[in-house]
Amino acid sequence: MDPSSFSLVGIDSVSADVFYNLIHKNKEYIQKGFAGTVKRCQSQEQATQLFSEWNLEEQEKRNFTFFIKEEITGAIIGLLNVKNIDYSVRKCEIGYFISEKYSGKGIVSKCTQKIISYCFEDLNMNKIFLRAAPENIASQKVALKNGFQQEGILRQEYKGLQDKFEDVIYFGLLQNEYNAMENLH
Predict the structure, then answer these.
(1) What are the residue boundaries of the structural domains of the chain, listed by start?
(2) Are 96 and 77 in contact, with CB atoms under 8 Å apart?
(3) Cα separation of 23 and 47, whole Å?
(4) Which residues have C-beta within 8 Å of that of residue 132, sequence separation ≥ 6?
(5) How far is it between the farthest Cα atoms of the chain?
(6) Which neighbouring-strand residues pair with 152?
(7) For residues 17 and 44, what is the distance between their CA atoms, to the nearest angstrom?
(8) Claim: this prediction has a pTM higher than 0.90
(9) Is domain 3-184 classified as CATH 3.40.630.30?
(10) Do 53 and 21 contact (CB within 8 A), yes or no?
(11) By C-alpha distance, which of 122, 99, 132 is closest to 178?
(12) In the sheet where 64-70 sits, what is the strand order?
């Protein structure tokens, strides 16, 4: 699978039904890192409510959601979001997941490159951070491959499955680091 045969589309290009199906079909695979989203999408109605909230947050520039689209079939196979935006400090968090059958093929890494550019170039952020579970090696690889540096482990920072507190590894990428990487290309 060629990572270039996938694109990012905005939330306005996807329906609440497609969003629900993406979460529902992948809930076992993604529930560790997206526990809150999975919890809030137990039914079609709940997913539609969350989708509406994300749409409103995007209109208010508080959250931006992009979906990974397979060009050949048109299928929506994952998502990336920009959240926890702090315009005063110029930082934001990104999160991502992809359907299990597409994982490990470089697709998320390639799409993350586009989101990083969006955050630094369009949103004028100074820092992007992401959090990954210590056992989520694939997510950590995406972060490192895209120039993020591990900044530390935040203990009991995330409320995961069954509302259990869990550690997360915190990664950060600064705008000057991004600019230096871009100048190398």
Answers:
(1) 3-184
(2) no
(3) 9
(4) 33, 139, 140, 143, 168, 169, 171
(5) 47
(6) 170
(7) 7
(8) yes
(9) yes
(10) no
(11) 122
(12) 6-10, 64-70, 76-86, 91-98, 127-132, 165-174, 149-159
